[in-house]
Amino acid sequence: MMTKEQILAAVEEQQIRFIDLWFTDIMGMVKSVTIPSAALESALTNGTHFDGSAIEGFARVAESDMRLIPDPNTFVVLPWDDADERTARLICTVHTLHGEPFIGDPRYALVKVLRQAEEMGFTYQTGVELEFFLFRVGDGKALLPLKVLDQSGYFDMSSSPAKGVLRRMVTMLTSMGIVVDSTHHENGAGQHEIDLEYDHALAMADKVLTARVALKTVASAHNLHCTFMPRPSSSLPGSGMHTHQSLHTTDGSNVFMDPGNEYGLSQTARYFLAGQLAHARAMCAILSPLVNSYKRLGTSFEAPVYVTWAHINRGALIRVPHISAGKEAHTRLELRCPDPSSNPYLASAVMLAAGLDGIRQQMPLPDAVEESLLRQDRNRLRHLEVLPTSLGEALETLGQNDVILSALGQFISDRYMTAKRQEFDEYNRQITAWELDRYINQY
Questions:
Q1: First vs last C-alpha separation in the chain
Q2: 69: which strand partners?
Q3: Distances in whole angstroms, Cα of residue 6 to Cα of each of 1, 17, 340
Q4: So what's the pLDDT on residue 370?
Q5: Within this chain, do residues 171 and 309 fall inside the same structural domain, yes or no?
Q6: pLDDT on residue 334
Q7: 206 and 344 within one domain
Q8: Which residue has the higher pLDDT, 130 or 137?
Q9: Which residues contact 125 (CB under 8 A, 6 or more apart)?
Q10: What predicted TM-score, i.e. pTM, was given to this entire model?
Q11: Would you say 394 and 285 are in contact if contact means Cβ atoms under 8 Å apart?
Q12: Do 137 and 238 share a domain, yes or no?
């Protein structure tokens, strides 16, 4: 926890001239207000005013004037600015002028669910596998047609240019206090993964937000385009954001572990898992939020289709990773439907809310569905619940789920669903090249 005095001292010592105050809109897009360093002390003490009505779907006209309250824990110097324009960053929560947290702030939505967990005696920790593509930018900054950076495959050694870019990315994240567990090439040409070290869920959401900006910045400096679009090409696999998660007591003990259980899961973990399975279809509207997300789910390599859990089956929605003897404190659940286009605050909020509901209701956990079982009994597939196949279906399911809607709050859920329904309706009105190629001469 950095104090105001420590931040002000760091700004003076490092001759920082500007401060970027970051927050997100409901869709997860980073918004920023820049202030000179001389205004930082006032911002840390009283917040900074801004016009919320300028943010689409963010505020009613009557609530247009708002205040950004910086979180001191998020202070970091941005490593990509020139020395004579050195800039630091603080992530903010949004408040009304009366000093109350704004109910339309996605970060506050996560904070509210985290407080519910704390009231039950839990803290929530997550770790993410962030997948993305790197494409070459052509003359005139043209991106299309897509040209991948390399032709490597899963865990292959990348070509020298790609390796250099990835190392630069890791170096930049590390300089910003984001610990990287590992990085490797993914299955698709030009596709990579960076795994972020486990942390408290709010800190992890902040890190995902920061990493997306940092990785795009590094790519741009190398005349590349980094995209977190779930599936940018039908000839390439999709990009996910597998999220590892666990609950802990206030003293740090892992609540999920039980070495005596077949899967190493405590009763609390099994309730949590059951809750996420029960609310999985509704969560998809938040965790897989784009029309394009459903070109990944169910059709791309290792993307989940069925609402199942397993230990070995990598096609399962939720996987229980193997834990070596003596490492039981690392027991966790891996949710595999999120993709990197999701708002990290809302994503964590709904994942946690679903799991907590499973604990409160003591939901029974269905049997695991391993690959070996499906090979022996293919008929069982008919009886398994499946994830939504379109954004429209996901939104319809979300609209009927009080637990997930409550986690978002009425203000966010109303505006989110309105915007996403408009997006889906607009998509449905498009006439694609595929349709023209297939039908124009036939009918």
A1: 67
A2: 93
A3: 10, 16, 33
A4: 84
A5: yes
A6: 97
A7: yes
A8: 130
A9: 198, 199, 200, 201, 204, 245, 246, 247, 248
A10: 0.94
A11: yes
A12: yes
